Amino acid sequence: MMSMGMTSTLKAIKGCRVLPGLHPRCSCSTGKPPQTLAFVPASPPLDPLEVKKLQDFICSSQRLFVITGAGISTESGIPDYRSEGVGLYARTDRRPIQHAEFLRSFRARQRYWARNFVGWPQFSSYQPNVAHLALRKWETLGKLHWLVTQNVDALHVKAGSQRLTELHGSTHRVLCLSCGHQMPRVELQEHFEALNPTWSATAHGVAPDGDVFLTDEQVQSFHVPSCNECGGHLKPDVTFFGDTVSREKVDFVYQHLHESDSVLVAGSSMQVFSAYKFALAAHDRKLPIAIVNIGPTRSDHLAFLKLNARCGELLPLIVLQ
After folding, report:
1. Cα(first)–Cα(last) distance of the chain, in Å?
2. Is the predicted pLDDT of residue 38 greater than 90, yes or no?
3. Which CATH superfamily is domain 6-10+40-317 in?
4. Of 98, 172, 183, 256, which has fewest CB within 10 angstroms of its CB?
């Protein structure tokens, strides 16, 4: 059973080409991903008693509802925004693009797509880690009822999860803001290359959503294609900051939450309300909530159990019978 958008995400990922070595247009290395723990904040050693508590929590659940965030993908080498000391907010003064800015400004769209074009070969090559695979296994064994991810990296899809909603969309899809036409992101990469045969840029660090840092001077001559169907503006099929998740998708997630008997939050600070509201709804329904995350979260006061640990270190330890 695949959720809305999952089929097109899977087709887009199957069409991806992982480019080895140096990207021909920039100096960023794509042959070897960064150290997988480079963007993971420090955490204390696992407490066996706490591990047993999570084991008991998962085993007692019959229809587990899981919410994941950026903290599950940092162990695959993808940076996040909020992790203490290593997140984008802590390392730089850069901030993600705002939805309204992308809509109203040609320069903003040009800057976004130039940065995304350079970062795409590396971003699209990231692979799921043991935490993604553990959740896929729980689904296969009938323990996981539904998985909602805030991430746009498609790593849960790559891991094989099917009972899944990508709450904020996926960077592996592109849509037209005028006619709604969709295409795989890898296909757009080919259009970029055809329109910019001599353009090149030196990247200055990788950002969480698949782009890199470029100067304004570097992007001034970058050409952005329009929709082949109607000539409209193209946008990644993701929910930018300042935008809202569709009512249809929210209702779809609520339906599966109402069918569940417990909730696990994995790798999320739950600062974004679009996910936090599901924890509030679970608490209102008196569903037990467990949280696995390094550092405090917005939902800690709602939790039956909180573990300050890496998802990839803890989730594979859970044994299902």
Report:
1. 23
2. no
3. TPP-binding domain (3.40.50.1220)
4. 98
